[in-house]
């Protein structure tokens, strides 16, 4: 009887320790959305993902030497997540093209969906097509209209969702960058620019 009781207590203690460890251990998963790690209290999250696009350029006649071939149009690893439930962060690099570079590196503070403050290097709220992710484009390249808008820049932006996501606003101050270009890590002209945008989606949650 003593031996049976000791084994039962040992088993109960082991089950308690296992349950405690499972409750306080981080949750790690790998799936279609990439590698995800979440702390036990969900205070910290991290998601590692990315995408790659291969481009083929072939000319059937009058091609210049070296014009035909394949190239890695985009190779974009992304690290994103949350800290303390109210801070989002994202870091995205670009290894396609001619030289590696940093595309996104920002922190977003969102105490409320209607009031969010973003700072760092990110897309300016200007061109509609430019704001769409390259992973969702029907083709590798955007239209020529994107060459007429500033791309990523360094700055601070106030944005948010209003009226149950039926409206969205964004307004920010940036270093200023040439149309069709990404900003450098430094600015020497002492001139900043203001960019703002309002999206209206009145029928987003209707039955129409």
The count of strands amounts to 10
Compute the CA-based radius of gyration.
Answer: 24 Å
Low-confidence stretches: none
List the total number of helices.
Answer: 1
Terminal Cα separation, in Å? 72 Å
The computed structural class is mainly beta
Based on CA inertia axes, which overall geometry fits? extended
Q: What string, H for helix and E for strand, traces the elements in order? A: HEEEEEEEEEE
Helical content, roughly?
A: 10-25%
Strand percentage: over 45%
In short:
The chain has 208 residues and is mainly beta. It has one helix at residues 2-24, and strands spanning 27-31, 34-38, 44-57, 69-83, 87-94, 101-112, 115-123, 152-162, 167-174, 193-200. A ten-stranded antiparallel beta sheet has the order 1-2-3-4-5-6-7-8-9-10, with no helix packed on it.
Give an overview in words.
By secondary structure, the chain is mainly beta. 11% of the residues lie in helices and 46% in strands. It has 1 helix and 10 strands; from the N terminus they run αββββββββββ. It has one helix at residues 2-24; strands spanning 27-31, 34-38, 44-57, 69-83, 87-94, 101-112, 115-123, 152-162, 167-174, 193-200. A 10-stranded antiparallel sheet has the order 1-2-3-4-5-6-7-8-9-10, with no helix packed on it. A hairpin with a 2-residue loop joins β6 and β7 (115-123). The radius of gyration is 24 Å and the shape is extended. The mean pLDDT is 87.
